[in-house]
Specification:
Blueprint (H helix, E strand, L loop, with lengths): L13 H10 L3 E4 L4 H9 L2 E2 L4 E2 L3 E6 L10 E6 L20 H5 L8 E6 L3 E5 L10 E4 L33
Parallel strand pairs: 1-4, 5-6
Antiparallel strand pairs: 2-3, 4-5, 7-8
């Protein structure tokens, strides 16, 4: 048995990622345009009222037409709360390229990459809203200010930001 503590000074070796790809029970999705979006929308535990994922997802994305991790892959983590509007992109609306489009880009031979979709939660509380959830997660771009959940002003995050500085008028 081997232990490998992971830290900024001791990252996960790519050989471990490769072994995960070889023997993992994770879903394997083609990078054909629309495949990743379809998989997240239909196979993620999505709240139908908000179109946000209730739980994270983890799956591999392979280059269409190639088989096996030796031919390149992306390990895709979709964070809880990720918003997915629909199962397909509306071409008639001429939407700009988004993160899912970038995940579906060509994967070079032998390429290994980890992709993370979604915002990092800034607040978690055991005293959630009345929606039956044990934990309420609020994201920076989706803060609920109706008194049910913490507002951005009530959130204390230790990430080096100065949330108390109201003199900053740069639009952030």
């Amino acid at each position: 048995m081997a232990f490998h503590p992971v830290s900024p000074s001791n990252p996960l070796p790519s050989s471990i990622l490769y072994q995960l790809a070889l023997g993992s029970p994770l879903d394997e999705i083609s990078n054909h345009p629309g495949s990743v979006r379809h998989h997240i929308f239909h196979h993620g535990d999505r709240d139908p009222t908000t179109n946000r994922l209730r739980w994270p997802m983890l799956f591999f994305v392979y280059q269409t037409g190639r088989q096996g991790p030796q031919n390149g892959f992306r390990l895709c983590l979709v964070k809880r709360g990720f918003h997915i509007r629909s199962p397909d992109k509306h071409k008639e609306e001429k939407e700009e390229e988004d993160d899912i489009d970038r995940v579906e880009k060509c994967i070079d031979q032998g390429w290994m990459e980890v992709v993370i979709l979604g915002d990092t939660p800034v607040y978690e509380s055991k005293a959630g809203c009345d929606d039956g959830a044990d934990v309420n997660v609020v994201f920076e771009n989706a803060v609920d200010n109706d008194g049910c959940c913490a507002s951005e002003e009530d959130v204390s995050v230790e990430d080096g930001r100065d949330d108390d500085d109201d003199d900053d008028d740069d639009g952030k």
